Structure to design on (474 residues):
C-alpha cells in the first residue's frame, strides 16, 4: 500500500494530495498475455514476452489510470495528427483511438517511445497581493509502451489483442484537489500527470467490418480511521486505519468499416472515468468529545466521448477527419469536500446532532458539451519516408468563472507535425517522431465582486509536446 497524505492550509479549503501504489493492474496484464503465449505460438522470440513483463512492472507503482492521451494523443503519430486517427488507427495505438483498428496492420508489433510535455500557462491576477496565488501546470516526461498481436490457429485473421500505456517519470502519477479559489488550469493541471493504460480486443465481423471492445480501469478508495486519545495520560490509547481500493470500469467500443479500398470509416466510444476518494477520521477524546473529519471528492474526471472519423486514400497521401463529441455537462464538482463535526461523547452515544459542524459546498462548473473537429494529412514520400500534419480546435466547455471559484480554461488551437522512417528489413522497423503545439486563446475574466480577493484574471498559454517512438513489426 502506498502513502496517502492530507494537507490542510489554515483559513482555506484544504489542498488534498494523494499518492498510492497498487498491484492488481500488473496481474491483469501478465495473465492476459501469458495465457495467449501458452495457447498460441504468437511470439517469434523472447523479446515480446519480456516487454510485456516490463509493462507489468512499469504499471506496479501507480494507482491513477486516467491519462494525458485525452489532451495530447497517444503515440508520436497521434500527436502529429492532432488525434485525427479514429478511421486510420492501427497496431496498439488503436487501443485508445478505436479498438476495432487492431485488425489492421501486421500480425504482431511492439513499440517503445518517450514523450515530453512542456506547458507554459500564464495567469495574470489584478491583485498581486492576493492570498490565492495562481498555480500553473509543470513540465513532465514519460515513456510509452504498447504491443498488439493476432493469434494464429483457429483465430487467424479473426481476432486481435493489444495494450498500450504511458508512465510519467518526472512528475509521478498523483491526485490533486486544489483550493477552488486558487486560479488553476482545470483541463491541464492534474490530468497529464497520470499513467495511461488500456486493454482491447477486436474481431472481424465481415471482410470490411471490424468490431473492437476494450476496458478502461480506474481505482478509487474508501477508508476509515479511528483514534482514541487520553488527555489525562497524554497518550493515544487506540488507533486503527482501513483503506479499501475499489476498481471501477468504463467501456471502450469501436467500429471500423472499409467499404472500398480508398475509404475508411471509424466510430468509437470511450466511457467517462473518475478517481473518487473518501478519507474519514474519528478522534475520541476519552469520554469528553468526539471530533469527526472527512475529506472526499472526485478528481481526474474525463467525459463520455464519441468519435466519428472518415479517411480517404489519395495518390501518395491520405486525408483524415474526426469529429468528437465530449459530454462535459456531466462534469462533477472538482473541489475536495472537507467536513468536520464536534460532539460531546454523551451526545454522540445518544445520536444527537453535533454541537459544531461544517458542510462543504460542491462547485457547479456549469460546463457544456463540446464538439471538437480534427483533420490530418499524411503523405508517403517513398517506401521509407512519410510526413504528416494535423489540426484540431477544442472549444472550452467552461464558462467564465466570475464568482469565487477560479477553475480556468479557454479554447485551444492544436497544430501537429511529424515524420516516420521505415527500414527495408523484413519485418520492418519504424521510427516515428511527432511534435504538437497547443495555443490557448487569451481569455479575460472580469469578476462580479469588486472586492474579490483574486480580482480580474487573464488566462492564456502555449503547450508543447513531443514524442519519438520505435515500433517493430513481426
Amino acid at each position: 500500500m502506498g502513502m496517502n497524505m492530507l494537507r490542510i492550509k489554515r483559513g482555506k479549503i484544504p489542498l488534498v494530495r494523494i499518492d498510492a501504489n497498487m498491484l492488481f493492474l500488473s496481474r491483469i496484464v501478465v495473465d492476459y498475455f501469458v495465457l495467449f503465449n501458452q495457447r498460441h505460438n504468437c511470439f517469434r522470440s523472447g523479446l515480446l514476452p519480456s516487454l510485456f513483463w516490463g509493462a507489468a512492472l512499469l504499471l506496479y507503482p501507480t494507482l491513477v489510470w486516467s491519462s494525458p492521451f485525452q489532451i495530447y494523443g497517444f503515440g508520436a503519430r497521434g500527436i502529429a495528427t492532432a488525434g485525427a486517427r479514429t478511421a486510420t488507427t492501427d497496431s496498439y495505438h488503436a487501443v485508445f483511438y478505436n479498438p476495432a483498428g487492431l485488425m489492421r496492420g501486421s500480425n504482431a508489433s511492439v513499440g517503445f517511445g518517450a514523450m515530453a510535455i512542456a506547458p507554459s500557462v500564464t495567469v495574470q491576477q489584478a491583485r498581486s497581493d492576493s492570498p490565492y496565488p495562481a498555480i500553473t501546470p509543470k513540465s513532465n516526461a514519460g515513456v510509452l509502451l504498447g504491443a498488439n498481436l493476432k493469434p494464429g490457429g483457429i483465430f487467424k485473421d479473426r481476432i486481435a489483442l493489444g495494450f498500450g500505456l504511458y508512465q510519467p517519470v518526472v512528475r509521478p502519477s498523483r491526485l490533486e484537489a486544489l483550493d477552488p479559489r486558487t486560479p488553476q488550469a482545470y483541463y491541464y493541471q492534474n490530468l497529464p500527470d497520470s499513467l495511461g493504460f488500456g486493454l482491447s480486443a477486436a474481431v472481424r465481423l465481415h471482410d470490411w467490418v471490424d468490431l473492437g471492445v476494450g476496458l478502461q480501469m480506474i481505482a478509487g478508495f474508501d477508508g476509515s480511521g479511528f483514534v482514541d486519545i487520553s488527555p489525562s495520560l497524554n497518550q493515544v490509547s487506540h488507533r486503527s486505519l482501513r483503506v479499501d481500493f475499489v476498481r471501477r470500469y468504463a467501456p471502450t467500443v469501436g467500429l471500423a468499416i472499409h467499404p472500398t479500398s480508398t475509404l475508411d470509416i471509424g466510430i468509437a466510444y470511450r466511457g467517462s472515468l473518475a478517481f473518487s476518494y473518501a478519507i474519514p477520521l474519528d478522534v475520541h477524546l476519552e469520554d469528553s468529545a468526539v471530533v469527526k473529519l472527512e475529506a472526499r471528492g472526485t478528481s481526474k474526471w474525463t467525459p463520455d466521448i464519441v468519435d466519428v472519423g472518415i479517411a480517404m486514400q489519395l495518390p501518395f497521401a491520405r486525408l483524415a477527419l474526426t469529429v468528437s463529441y465530449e459530454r462535459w455537462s456531466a462534469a462533477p464538482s472538482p473541489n475536495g469536500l472537507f467536513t468536520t463535526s464536534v460532539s460531546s461523547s454523551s451526545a454522540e452515544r445518544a445520536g444527537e446532532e453535533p454541537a459544531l459542524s461544517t458542510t462543504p459546498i460542491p462547485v457547479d462548473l456549469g460546463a457544456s458539451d463540446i464538439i471538437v473537429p480534427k483533420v490530418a494529412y499524411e503523405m508517403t514520400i517513398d517506401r521509407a519516408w512519410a510526413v504528416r500534419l494535423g489540426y484540431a480546435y477544442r472549444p472550452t466547455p467552461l464558462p467564465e468563472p466570475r464568482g469565487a471559484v477560479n477553475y480556468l480554461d479557454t479554447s485551444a488551437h492544436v497544430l501537429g507535425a511529424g515524420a516516420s522512417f521505415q527500414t527495408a528489413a523484413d519485418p520492418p522497423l519504424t521510427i516515428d517522431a511527432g511534435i504538437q503545439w497547443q495555443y490557448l486563446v487569451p481569455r479575460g475574466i472580469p469578476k462580479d465582486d469588486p472586492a474579490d480577493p483574486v480580482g480580474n484574471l487573464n488566462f492564456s498559454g502555449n503547450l508543447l509536446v513531443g514524442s519519438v517512438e520505435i515500433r517493430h513489426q513481426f
